[in-house]
Amino acid sequence: MPQPTARTRHQFVFAVLAVGILAFSLLQSLLTPVLVTLQEELHTSRSTVTWVLTAYLLSASVFTPIMGRVGDILGKKPVFVAALVALSLGALLAALAWNVAVLIAARVIQGVGGGVLPLAFGVLRDEFPPEKVSGAVGAIASLTAVGAGTGVVLAGPIVNTLDYHWLFWIPMALTAVAAVAAHLVIPKSSPRTPGRISPLPALLLSAWLVALLVALSRAPSWGWASGKTIGLLVCAVVVAASWVHVEKRSAAPLVDMQMMRLPAVWTNNLVGLLMGVSMYALFAFVPQFVQTPRSSGYGFGAGVTQSGLILLPLTVMMFLSGMVSGGMTARIGGRAVIACGLLTSLLAVAVLTFAHSEKWELYVATGLLGGGFGLAFAAMSSLIVGAVPPDQTGVASGMNTNIRTVGGSIGAALMTSVVTTDLAPTGLPRESGYTHGFGMLGGALLIAVLAVLLMPRPSRNSGTRVSAPPFSPPVEAAPAPTTPAS
């Protein structure tokens, strides 16, 4: 039997990583449009069912950098397989959940799988030729966001055709297959940085992330000036400062603070934070806008399936932009590609803000959003991976993912507050709430464009001369961070 060529082996590895990332990103967003259905089926309250999203968000935020660092130490392959197994077991428990408490616990287990993204980047860097790494990383980064958008589109048809349990059975099957395939296909990886993880930095990182994200996700219902919100935000700041101090003094830091201070790292993280503010809020609020009854004077009275289809152009364009991102990065540099993507997304938000009375306007806007965010996410992930030593790929990309998640939580919380500040007598948000909210998200993108100017210019001999992915399926999001109030 002929042995597979290096090219064929790379294609197999990419395909396995792609399936795992797709299943992970589907689990992020499949539940967002159907929370009302889950509330009714599990006989719980609206405030309780939102913890199905919040628990996953918190767990993934904690475990993403930790799993990335463990992969840097023990090797990417076994930790990537373990993350897929956690996703599969969590999905199995969720599919069998008999009450909302069990479902929330299952979502916490699924959050352990948040490490699949930084681990996938590490596998690509270990196994692919240097000239192929940037394109492959950009493709995987784009596939994350494609999966998140696809989850919103598919949620309605899955629930209407089958039932909500299949929102977990389908990803469970995908992750189980991906775990077996990863064990068989991905070459055995050698540990990059033999050592250990100190428990105190991991504990402090977990504590400030949980305090911050709970405060942001609950602030619209608690009130921004409430004692609980302010107390958690202050706690997050104090514990985060303690975490940085401990990391600097630790002999075995979880996150190397010197690495985080690299210009190419902190500027990409800043842009990622601002992108997250806009992207994940738009994922949550565009379908809600479309579902608003026409009797309110705006909206289209669409159902879950119809509102999900509004995001279909976003998914398609994100796939296509992921295909061309590697080639564009090779020709004009990652910084220019990020700026191009952000400006395209800014144009899309302008359309949403000023022209949303016809469905075709929303299709145009979501298509532009997909193209813009796809370009920017893919190029940003490539720059992060290329800026750090190979033994810090997992933790660096994991922290970048976390920072985008924090941005998403900020954007969703602010958007919820803006949209629901002035409700109509019917209890529905007024159109002006959405208009002002979309304008606010556009402001975040404008600041992100300006932040790109802070990124270091690539040198003539930098690793920007990379080819596009040598495979057909070249395709992030972090989870939808909160559920907008209606």
Automatic annotation (TrEMBL):
<protein>
    <submittedName>
        <fullName>MFS transporter</fullName>
    </submittedName>
</protein>
<feature type="transmembrane region" description="Helical">
    <location>
        <begin position="198"/>
        <end position="216"/>
    </location>
</feature>
<feature type="transmembrane region" description="Helical">
    <location>
        <begin position="265"/>
        <end position="286"/>
    </location>
</feature>
<keyword id="KW-1003">Cell membrane</keyword>
<feature type="transmembrane region" description="Helical">
    <location>
        <begin position="79"/>
        <end position="98"/>
    </location>
</feature>
<dbReference type="InterPro" id="IPR036259">
    <property type="entry name" value="MFS_trans_sf"/>
</dbReference>
<keyword id="KW-0812">Transmembrane</keyword>
<feature type="compositionally biased region" description="Low complexity">
    <location>
        <begin position="474"/>
        <end position="486"/>
    </location>
</feature>
<feature type="transmembrane region" description="Helical">
    <location>
        <begin position="12"/>
        <end position="36"/>
    </location>
</feature>
<feature type="transmembrane region" description="Helical">
    <location>
        <begin position="332"/>
        <end position="356"/>
    </location>
</feature>
<feature type="transmembrane region" description="Helical">
    <location>
        <begin position="166"/>
        <end position="186"/>
    </location>
</feature>
<keyword id="KW-1133">Transmembrane helix</keyword>
<dbReference type="InterPro" id="IPR011701">
    <property type="entry name" value="MFS"/>
</dbReference>
<feature type="transmembrane region" description="Helical">
    <location>
        <begin position="222"/>
        <end position="244"/>
    </location>
</feature>
<feature type="domain" description="Major facilitator superfamily (MFS) profile">
    <location>
        <begin position="13"/>
        <end position="460"/>
    </location>
</feature>
<keyword id="KW-0614">Plasmid</keyword>
<feature type="region of interest" description="Disordered">
    <location>
        <begin position="462"/>
        <end position="486"/>
    </location>
</feature>
<feature type="transmembrane region" description="Helical">
    <location>
        <begin position="48"/>
        <end position="67"/>
    </location>
</feature>
<dbReference type="InterPro" id="IPR020846">
    <property type="entry name" value="MFS_dom"/>
</dbReference>
<dbReference type="Pfam" id="PF07690">
    <property type="entry name" value="MFS_1"/>
</dbReference>
<feature type="transmembrane region" description="Helical">
    <location>
        <begin position="406"/>
        <end position="428"/>
    </location>
</feature>
<feature type="transmembrane region" description="Helical">
    <location>
        <begin position="136"/>
        <end position="160"/>
    </location>
</feature>
<keyword id="KW-0472">Membrane</keyword>
<keyword id="KW-0813">Transport</keyword>
<feature type="transmembrane region" description="Helical">
    <location>
        <begin position="104"/>
        <end position="124"/>
    </location>
</feature>
<feature type="transmembrane region" description="Helical">
    <location>
        <begin position="298"/>
        <end position="320"/>
    </location>
</feature>
<feature type="transmembrane region" description="Helical">
    <location>
        <begin position="362"/>
        <end position="385"/>
    </location>
</feature>
<keyword id="KW-0046">Antibiotic resistance</keyword>
<feature type="transmembrane region" description="Helical">
    <location>
        <begin position="434"/>
        <end position="455"/>
    </location>
</feature>
